[in-house]
Specification:
Elements: H1 22-49, H2 51-68, H3 87-103, H4 105-116, H5 128-159, H6 171-188, H7 191-200, H8 206-211, H9 213-227, H10 233-264
Helix pairs in contact: 1-3, 1-4, 2-5, 3-6, 4-5, 5-6, 5-10, 7-10, 9-10
């Protein structure tokens, strides 16, 4: 016999479609955050172990510019400097943190998806692998384009400083610029993933996106002009043009998904 004083067990979620209590949601969120942080810590350790190689990789665009335009680097000779006692230490931590997050990005996106899954219908859960793969791939693509445009961005910034100005960068400020560039491009390149996800759950339709394409493309250029850390036209165009293309591609994907849903509707 069950005694009236025995505590009943906490209700469990039998399937992802079952409703979860607020406590269960918070426990689930805590679990996902802890796993993501552990992945970031592992990534930080990896970057710290290969710090010199990573720093050399980040400095390569500046060194390439100095090799091509030695008049821009007469003072620095293609080197960066530690201009404060803690600059080197803080730079190492910054690079390790940025790199750790990038390495842990697949785990982070998977944890985000697993947290969102209970709110989705069964047919929408099959997009887990495409969601994680596209998110990570687009972020890396954005980071690569930011790195690729960095040499032109530095050349523009040095040229606009004036003929009598010689460039000599502190290692912390240089790494901060590179980190902000990669983060801005990587996050902006997640734009199509968000648009496709909103279409999958029915918040947006491809018809709505197509109707406002002129304003959307204008917004892409304005956003690129605002969030580009270097502020140079090369980086702005390198960000605005792919965002505009991604907007149109997301509309096309939305139409494909919509047609498939309409074909399955009579069967369902």
């Amino acid at each position: 016999m069950k005694t009236p004083f025995k505590h009943s067990e906490q209700p469990t979620v039998a399937t992802p479609d079952d409703r979860m209590t607020l406590t269960q949601h918070l426990a689930e969120l805590r679990t996902r955050i802890i796993r993501s942080l552990l992945a970031v810590v592992v990534g930080i350790i990896v970057i710290l172990a290969a710090y010199d190689q990573v720093l050399g990789f980040l400095l390569q665009p500046y060194r390439d510019l100095c090799a091509r335009r030695p008049d821009f680097c007469a003072v620095s000779g293609g080197n960066v400097f530690s201009l404060a006692p803690l600059a080197g230490f803080s730079t190492r931590l910054s690079i390790a943190t940025y790199g750790g997050i990038i390495i842990a990005l697949p785990v982070i996106m998977w944890q985000v998806w697993r947290f969102v899954v209970p709110a989705l219908h069964a047919k929408e859960k099959k997009y887990a692998i495409p969601f994680v793969f596209s998110s990570v791939s687009l972020f890396l693509l954005g980071g690569y384009i930011a790195y690729w445009t960095l040499e032109k961005a530095l050349e523009f910034l040095i040229a606009w400083s004036g003929e009598d100005v010689q460039a000599a960068y502190g290692v912390d400020t240089y790494v901060k610029l590179v980190g902000l560039m990669i983060a801005a491009f990587g996050i902006a390149f997640e734009f199509p993933v968000l648009l496709v996800a909103l279409q999958l759950v029915g918040v947006l339709t491809p018809q709505t996106l197509l109707k406002g394409w002129r304003f959307a493309l204008l917004a892409c250029f304005l956003i690129a002009a605002v969030i580009t850390p270097s502020g140079d036209p090369y980086s702005m165009l390198a960000l605005a043009l792919p965002m505009s293309l991604f907007y149109l591609v997301s509309i096309l994907i939305g139409y494909v998904v919509q047609r498939r849903k309409l074909r399955r509707a009579p069967v369902d």
